[in-house]
Every structure is written in C-alpha cells, then in structure tokens.
Amino acid sequence: MSESTYAVVGTRPPRHDATDKVTGRAHYGADFQLTGMLHGFILRSPHAHAAIRRIDVSKAEAFPGVKAVVTSADLPESPEQMVDIGEGAMPLSYIRGNMLARSKVLYKGHAVAAVAAVSPHVAEEAASLIEVDYDVLPCALTVEDAMRDGAPVILPDLRTKEFGEQTGRPGNVAEHFRHVLGDAENGFTEADLVVEREFRTATVHQGYIEPHATTVLWNEDGHVLVWCSSQGAFTVRKATAAVLDLPVLRVSVTPLEIGGGFGGKIRIYLEPVAALLSKKSGRPVKIVMSRQDVFEGTGPTPGSHMRIKMGARKDGRITAAQAYLAYEAGAYPGAMVAPGAMCVFAAYDIPNVVIDGYDVVVNKPSTAAYRAPGATQAAFATESVVDEIAENLGLDPVEFRLMNAAKEGTRRADGPKFRRIGCVEVLEAMRNHPHYRAPLEGPNRGRGVAVGFWFNVGLASSCTISVNSDGTVNLLDGSVDLSGTRTSVSMQAAETLGLRAEDVRPSVGDTDSIGFTEVTGGSRTTYATGWAAVEAARDVIGQMKERAALLWETDAASVEFDRGVFRAGGRSITFQELAAQLDETGGPVVGRGAVNPSGAGGSFSGAIADVEVDPETGKVSVLRFTAVQDAGRAIHPSYVEGQMQGGSVQGIGWALNEEYFMSAEGAMLNSSWLDYRMPTSLDLPMIDTVIVEVPDPEHPFGVRGVGEANIVPPPAAVSNAVYRATGVRLYRLPMNPVAVMEALWQKESEPGGGSLHSDAAA
Amino acid sequence: MAVVFIPTLLRDLTGGRDAVEVQGANARQVIEELERACPGIRARLLDGERLRPNIRIAVDGRIAPLGLVERVSPASEVHFVVGIAGGLGPP
To answer: Does domain A18-25+458-595 have CATH number 3.30.365.10?
Structure first.
C-alpha cells in the first residue's frame, strides 16, 4: 500500500456495527417478529421438468391452523413488461413464473404453492396435503444437453436472440452474441504455438450462511410492508411491486441485517408470495427458507462449457485468442455469459480476438449473480491455457503475463478501451512477493498463479448527513451493509468533514426514508455510496460556511475549510464549535448527496497457490495462498483484506469441492452443508494479502471496488498448481478427489505415463 | 465526428464495417444518424423510443448513465454493449 496523507482513510477503526454483531443484538431476517404473525411454507416441485395438470389445495386449506393457501392463480395478470431487477432486466412473466410455477415446473425445487399457518410445522404439514398432478417431462441439465438436436424444450416460446434481433430459432439458446477484434484467423497464422482446450465447470452456489427470510404485512390500507434480508431494499420494492402489479409507493421495504449474499440476494423469491398470503389471511406472514430451499430454490451461478484457443509467438507475444462460452442460465434466460465474455481475455492486450457467447436455459434453478458473475469460469479456462503456453515457450508464467498485460489504452474485445487500470502493478506485486520465489519442497507439491478481472460498477446512491449540536453527525444511506460498508462510507464522510470515524453514526435507511439507492453489488458500495457520502459532507461544509460567514459578518465565499476548521479573515472556528451554534444561526444543517457515477475503475486480482496432492486419495491440500488485488485506495485496509480472503476461499471451494451434484432426473443430491462441501478454516492456510493501490482517477479518494475480482483467479491458480504437482492438467471443476484420481489413472495408463512428480519451479 | 463501433452481429447492416463516423450531439442523435447511413440498425438498438432491454450505450469507455440523452462529442467513441441479465452492467 502507498503512504497516505489522510487522517481517516487508510486507517482501521472498529466497525460501527461490531458490538451488535458479536453480541447477537443485530436483527437478521429470521429474527423479525410482529404481533399475530403467521408462518409460511413453500411447496416445491419434486421434478426437474413437468407439466402441471392440476393443483388441489382443498385438504391444505381445511387443515387446522391454516389461514391461507396460494398458487400462481393468485398472482395478478398484467401485460408483459421488462422489469429492471437490479441485475439487468427480466420479463415480468419469467419473474412471476419463478415465484410460483404456472403451467410447468422447470427445475426440482420450483415453487408451486404456499401455505400460511399458525406455526412453521403446521404450514409444512398442510403443504404436504396439497395434491399436484404432474406430467413428468424429460429434462436437460447441462448446456451440452440443452443445445443438442432434439433436446427437451424448456420454454416453448423461447427464440434465440442475436443483439436485438429475434432469429426465430426455437430451442434452449436464449441469446448468442459475438465480439470480434482484429483478424483472429490471421493472428493464429502468425503464432508459433497454438493451444486449444475444452473446459467445463459445475453449478455452484454462493453459499451465504443466512437463508433467505422475509416478513410481509399487506396492511388494511392496501400498503405492503416488507422486512427482509436482501442486497437492496429498492430492488426488492421494485420487483415486489411489479409482481403484485402495484405502484412502488404502495410497497415499503425495510432492509434487515444480512448474513451474506455475494450476489444471490439481489433477486426476490419470497416477498410477493408472503404478501399474497398476508392479503388472504389479513395477518403478517414470515417465510424463512431451509438450507435445502436455498440450494434448490434460489439462483446459483452457472455451470459452463467453454473452449479457449490462444496463439503466441516464440518471443512471448500473444497474437490471437478465441473463446466459445456457453453458460447455463437455469430455468430462465440470464446466464452471466455476457460479463464472462467481457472478462475472458481482459487481462491481456491481444490484437486479434473472437468471442462467442451462448445463454442457454436448462432444468436447474434460474441462475443469479455470484461475485464477479461469469468471470471466474472464463478465467479458469483462459488462465489454464495461458499457463500451458508459458510453459511450452519456456517462460516464467508471471513474466509471460506481464509481457502481454492489458494497460491503459488497451482495447478490449468487446469494444471500449481500458482507462487507468492496475493489471501490470498486480502482476509486478506477485512477481516481487516472497511467496513467488520461496522454495517449495516435498513431493507432489506445486505452485500455480493466475490473474483475473472484474469491471465493478457505479450506479445510483443516496446519502444524507445531519449535524448534531456536539459536532458529531448522523449518516443515513441506502446501501445494505454486507461487509462493513457502514464504516467504509462513514470514514469517507469523516475524512471530508475533518472528523473521526467514531464521530459518525451510520444507519441504513428503508425505502421511505432515503433516496433511491441501487443494490449492494458490483463492488459498488464503498465506491458509489462513499462518493454520495462525500457529496453530502461537502453539502454540509457549504451550509456551515454560510453559518460561519453569518457569525463573522462576511461572505461565505471567503470562508475556507480544512481538516475540521473554518477560517476567514484571521478568525477560525472548529466544526464542533460551529455545530453548537446551529440553532442561533438558522437551525438544522442536513447535507445530501446523490450520485450516479458511470466510470468505476475495474479491479485486477492475482493469486499464488501452493498445493499438495495426495497420490493415494486425490485430495488436494492448499499449503499456502497469496491474494493480490488493486483496491485503488483502501479506505479500511482490514475490510479490503477480508474481501480478498473471502473471495479467495470461495474461489478455492469452487476449484476443489463445490458443485451441484445432480441425478440423471435433475435432483440435486447434495443440498445440505454436510454434502455440499465448502472449505472451512480447518481446510485452509491463512490467506496472505497484498493490497495494490492504483487510484481510480475520478473517485474523490481513488476507490476501486474490491468485493469481487478476488474470486476470479483462485480456481485457475489452484489448477495450475495441481498440474505442477502432478503433471496432469484438469479441465473441469471441481477438482475433487474423484476427478484428480481419474486424471492420474488416465495418465498412468498412457504410454510413458508414470507416478507423480514434484516440479516446484512455477 | 464521433466514431460508432458496430457490434459484430450488426455488421450485416453496415456492409461489414466495424466502425462508422457520424454526427450527433447525444446518443439518440447518433443512432438517428446511424440509421440514415445504415438503414435498419435503429430497430436493432431501440424498442420504440427506448433502448432495447439489455443493450447499453458506452460513450468513451463508460456506460452512459443518461442513456439516449448522454452527450457525445466529435471526438467520442460510442459502443453498444450487451447488458447483463443476471449481473450488474459493466462500465
């Protein structure tokens, strides 16, 4: 990190919500209670693909303690429209269809009906009495299944789109797009070495610890009140209002604390259902998902099928690259293949590129965002090929990447040029880190590296700051706090106002109390909401200058402000002293900031991984791991490091263990924490972190978002390390013991195959 | 004049050209001028008077927060990018 001239930015104060979090006082979705509250339970499809012939809810309605039962027949009908759901637009019919299935169920776990009763157990028991007559249909579970001729048609009305044009082609491909830069065919002829490989990755879940939970009251005045765990109250309001065909003014959403989201709590699943149950029963209704509900009924990240072809000259220059990316959208269009395509070669300056992307519906839950959505799959493929080329050319893998690294002015294959980015600085930090040069001794061990990129976004944020008479301030913003952003936002306000972080009392507002604010996602909150806080603080300073000018009988324009002190004409007054005189100078001072920045600087991240492979079991153990990331400016370094460690751990889990293990009939067979194997602290070493700071030139403090890019390189870094340890490259995630042993046995069965070797020279 | 980069799948409307120079003070005017030069392209970008869902305009490398009324200078680069259903749009 660079030396900082700031008093607050770059320091590590305790987070404002720390005490409530560690004492259990913080209110999460499931903690919320209202008098007379009922409990909801959602009946889900046991089939991956089936037509619904008939639903009979009469026995459930008659069950003692049941107050309401709803099906899709209770959802309103309204004309089709595209609804911005905080993660791109989606047709309203798809959103409603995912909420409660209409004529077909499209995945096992698809919601079919819901019951509200006096207890969760009564609701569950009553739901088991609902009779659903299914006509089971064949299913398609992977993009390869879904794209082949004769595949089961999942959405009968679906036609492939190509950049705004309906091609009229039926099937399961919702969208095809292509990016072309230069002349790839010619670029490959210039290459001395061309490597082409095929990759597959499994469906994985974000794995947030807190299940989805909501409480909804359809009030007697027709107002719908929602208290829930989500990544954005305004997005919940917008989507809930659209599904229920209500004006947004009729829906109020209060965000409660959130126990993890990682992109998976942007979409809604429960709120309209609970609202309909509340409307029917006249009582507030709470629904809390089980872990199985979360796995089977919410959006994981897409599985993928990819082909990457890259060519390079002997001098180490990459001359051409080609990518085929087909991502599973799940039951409805919207796989993250577009950002995957924008990131697949983003780390490199390549003159000739072709990228084809396919968004493919399959009989799995409708996929959702997951930390740098789409980029991790793509980076696994690209970084594996880059590693192979570097080895074949006899080049150091980091040096090879540096020779081809994207920098300011590099044109991306999807069109725009990069502005100031830190790809080179991240690679240099990797090369210079002691980990990279440290000897790696012992058999069956290897070291791998990889880099990754995520765009980050700006988007709309609002913030108000109210000055108290003792010189402290209350800060209200609209961003759900996933990771300490109350504090990182407050620190930017404090720095601007010349206060200490603890002089700011931050709160997250509901949709009735704060201006529109987009979701906490896209690594945007410290960047954009922090920027809104700076604007609000500047507004406060402007108003306080007028107060000082009033006291000093001078013009406000002559008043200067620096580090908490107002000065003019040889006189000075501190922020605190002036705050004590607000009453007699005009009353309250409330500053407001509302921003919609568009130029968020993307973040590059790198990983160095040491692994050991057990030749008897195929188990891969991570021995040492270093994460490097460009934060632009680290407002609170501890939180940046925490993001880097969290993203690295999730990336390692994606690499080694995590997957939706599906039966041939489309049932997830491992929908519990016991069987869906996420890494724990017992599985991993301490994740070392290096914060690189290449400030974003436009942000007041140079912030780049840091929440996502760190998950992108770990799977490739681990895979490259496994190769160095075993001599075997794996082209499929997860690299679990079964996959590793199969690869080793195949290697041994080949002519010249042998036992594991140790090659620590990464 | 601003340089409009043509998405690969729309180049059948530009005779294969990957970039077209047009005048226009904002993104809407740029699209109208583009339509005059390359008939049919407007319908691929707009749905009525609005951008098609999941298509975004980028001016000088950043997603235009003002959409069709985003200002464009004679030295600008204009791109049309696939929006991200299922994820937040990149700048």
So the answer is: yes
